[in-house]
C-alpha cells in the first residue's frame, strides 16, 4: 500500500510518528496532508531516495533502517535529465508510471511482464512457423499470436520459467524488465553484449534499469504518418503522441497509458515542475 497525500488512518499515524522520531516534524493526526508530504520529501532527500512525497516499500525500508542501495537515488534522475536534455519531471513521471515507481518485487527480483505474442514471434523466427504453432497449441498462455494472459508480479516469473523450458533466449527477450519495463528484445540495439547481460543488469540495481531506459530513449526510432521519427527528439519537444506511440505502442490511448501518465505528472509537477535542466 502506498501512502500519499490524502491518505487516512493508523498507517499514516504510524508514519508520522516515525518521521517525528527521526527528526522530521509533522502533525501526528493520522491524515496525510501538506506537512506530512513535506516531511516525507525531506526524509527521502536525506537518505538519497527518489523524493516524490509518496511512501511505498522503498521509503518504508529506509524508515526502518534497511539497506536501500539497489534503489534509485534522487541524483540518478537529475543526471538522467541532463543526459537527455529534458526536464527532470518527464523522467520522474515515466519512473512513476512504469513499475509503479519500483523496479523490484518484494523478493528482490526485477519486475517483469511476460509477452506471449513476442515468444511466438521469436520461436517462429528461430525455428519456423510450424514449430511456433505447435507450441501455441500446447501452451497457449505461454506462446500465442495474441497479447494477454498476464497474471502479474511473481506470477509472471512462473510464466517465464515455462517459456525458458522451450527456449531460454526467446523467453528472456519476450519480457519487459525493471522499473521502466524495457523489453529484452531491445538488448542489441541498446548496446548490451547479450540478452543475459541485459537481464543481469536489471537484477543489479534500479540505476542500471534507468540506464536501459535512457539507452532506449536515445536509440528508439519509428515511422509515424509516413515520417521517420526519433523518440529522443519527440521527448525533448514534448510531442506526447509520438512519445507514447514509440514507447507504448500505437494503441496507447485504448490501453489508458496517456491517463496514467497525466495522473503521475499532475502529482509530481508541483514538486518538480520548476526545475530546469542545467
UniProtKB/TrEMBL annotation:
Residues 91-268 form the N-acetylmuramidase domain. It comes from the Bacteria. Residues 11-63 form the Peptidoglycan binding-like domain. This is N-acetylmuramidase family protein. It comes from Acinetobacter pollinis. The lineage of its organism: Bacteria, Pseudomonadati, Pseudomonadota, Gammaproteobacteria, Moraxellales.
Amino acid at each position: 500500500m502506498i501512502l500519499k497525500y490524502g491518505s487516512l488512518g493508523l498507517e499514516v499515524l504510524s508514519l508520522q510518528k516515525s518521521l517525528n522520531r527521526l527528526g522530521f516534524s509533522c502533525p501526528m493526526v493520522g491524515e496525510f496532508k501538506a506537512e506530512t508530504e513535506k516531511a516525507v520529501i525531506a526524509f527521502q532527500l536525506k537518505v538519497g531516495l527518489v523524493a516524490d512525497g509518496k511512501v511505498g516499500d522503498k521509503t518504508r525500508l529506509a524508515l526502518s533502517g534497511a539497506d536501500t542501495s539497489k534503489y534509485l537515488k534522487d541524483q540518478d534522475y537529475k543526471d538522467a535529465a541532463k543526459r537527455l536534455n529534458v526536464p527532470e519531471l518527464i523522467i520522474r513521471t515515466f519512473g512513476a508510471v512504469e513499475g509503479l515507481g519500483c523496479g523490484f518485487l518484494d523478493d528482490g527480483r526485477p519486475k517483469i511482464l511476460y509477452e506471449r505474442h513476442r515468444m511466438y514471434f521469436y520461436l517462429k523466427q528461430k525455428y519456423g512457423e510450424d514449430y511456433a504453432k505447435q507450441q501455441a497449441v500446447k501452451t497457449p498462455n505461454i506462446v500465442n499470436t495474441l497479447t494477454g494472459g498476464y497474471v502479474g508480479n511473481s506470477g509472471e516469473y512462473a510464466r517465464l520459467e515455462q517459456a525458458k523450458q522451450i527456449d531460454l533466449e526467446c523467453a528472456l527477450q519476450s519480457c519487459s524488465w525493471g522499473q521502466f519495463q524495457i523489453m529484452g528484445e531491445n538488448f542489441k540495439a541498446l548496446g548490451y553484449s547479450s540478452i543475459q547481460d541485459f537481464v543481469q543488469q536489471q537484477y543489479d540495481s534500479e540505476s542500471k534499469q534507468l540506464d536501459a531506459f535512457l539507452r532506449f530513449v536515445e536509440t528508439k526510432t519509428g515511422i509515424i504518418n509516413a515520417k521517420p521519427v526519433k523518440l529522443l527528439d519527440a521527448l525533448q519537444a514534448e510531442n506526447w503522441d509520438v512519445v507514447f506511440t514509440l514507447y507504448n505502442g500505437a494503441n496507447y490511448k485504448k490501453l489508458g497509458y496517456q491517463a496514467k501518465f497525466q495522473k503521475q505528472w499532475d502529482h509530481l509537477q508541483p514538486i518538480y515542475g520548476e526545475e530546469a535542466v542545467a
